Amino acid sequence: MKNYQFILLYILLFVMIFYGLFYRNMVVVLPVVSVLLILFILNSNLLKKNYEIDENLLHLTKEIIHELNIPISTIQSNVSLIRKQVKDNEKLLKRLNRIEDASKRLERLYNELHYSIKKEIKTIEREEVDVVALVKERVSIMKQLNRNPFELLLEPCFIVVDKIGFEKMLDNILTNAMKYSQKESLITVRLENNILLIEDRGVGMDEVELLMIYERYFQLDNSSQGKGIGLALVQAYCIDEKIKIDIESKKGVGTLVKLDLKTIIV
Fold it and tell me: Which is nearest to 181 in space by CA: 221, 217, 214?
């Protein structure tokens, strides 16, 4: 039974108790009180069980994450040691770089796994984030795909936010900017007056498409691979974090995404 249904039932039972007491009809009062007590006990037990499940799941998650982190840390530390020993062997250094990049991707995956499970049981903690450093980090990762050039114009800005969620949101927007523009097309990321702007010079959208962008599986090109441009997830995150999002676009010109961070600045 949902919470609002429990509340309505409680109200009805209390009305019946009041009616019985007002007319001194204990035949009505006693059974209703008994039902009310039973409901209260059942509801309390359900809440307790849900809490215990969440606690057990969180504990199990921490154990799994800890176990996953050990081999990742081992790989990364050994790569660093081997690199010092073979610094003159260019071929081997390239292989070590590939191993290191793979270990970083694996580390990122396990962080996202941890984040996803914590989010499901509502234990996400917000933290202070340097937006400039975070943007530079995410853009550097995008540059590894050897696609679009980036222009960064960033003013200092610190926010308190769900960091991993913010990274995932930003990655989504950057990926869309790259996906729907030519490989040599410039992508500009600006941070001014506590507003983060991501602008591409890609295919753009018309007014009809702009109305559909927050639909879960909407995509600009039916021939494109994947499950849409993912702005439904971006919008959901912005609503949770109270970030105002605004998207401007013109067909054949490009798209501008504005994220107003004023409500979450330090």
Answer: 221
DSSP character at residue 253: T
Q: Is 70 exposed, middle or buried (0-12, 13-18, 19+ CB in 10 A)?
A: exposed
103 lies in the same domain as 155: no
Q: Are residues 138 and 259 in the same domain?
A: yes
Rounded distance between C-alpha atoms, residue 229 and residue 217, angstroms:
7
* Paired tokens of 210: 């702009």
Domain that holds residue 141: 127-264
Tens digits of residue pLDDT in 169-216:
999 899 889 988 999 999 999 999 999 999 999 999 988 888 888 776
Q: Own/partner pairs for 94-103, CB < 8 Å, 24+ apart?
A: 99/75, 100/76, 101/144, 103/72, 103/75, 103/76, 103/79
Q: What is the pLDDT of residue 225?
A: 41
Closest CA to 229 of 189, 184, 181, 172: 172
Same domain, yes or no: 132 and 117: no
Q: Minimal CA–CA distance to 148: which of 184, 198, 197?
A: 184
Q: Tokens for 236, please give them.
A: 């959901």
Q: Say how many domains are in the chain.
A: 2
Give the pTM. Answer: 0.59
User: Of 261 and 116, which is predicted with more confidence?
Assistant: 261
Whole-number CA gyration radius for the chain: 27
What pairing do the DSSP bridges indicate for beta strands 195-199 and 187-192? antiparallel
Show the tokens assigned to 142.
Answer: 């995008």
Q: Quick one: 159 and 110 in the same domain?
A: no
Task: Give the Cα separation of 32 and 21 in Å (integer).
Answer: 11
Measured in degrees and rounded to the nearest 5, phi and psi for residue 158 equal -120, 135
Q: How far apart are CA 231 and CA 210, in angstroms?
A: 11
Q: Are strands 187-192 and 150-154 parallel, antiparallel or unpaired?
A: parallel
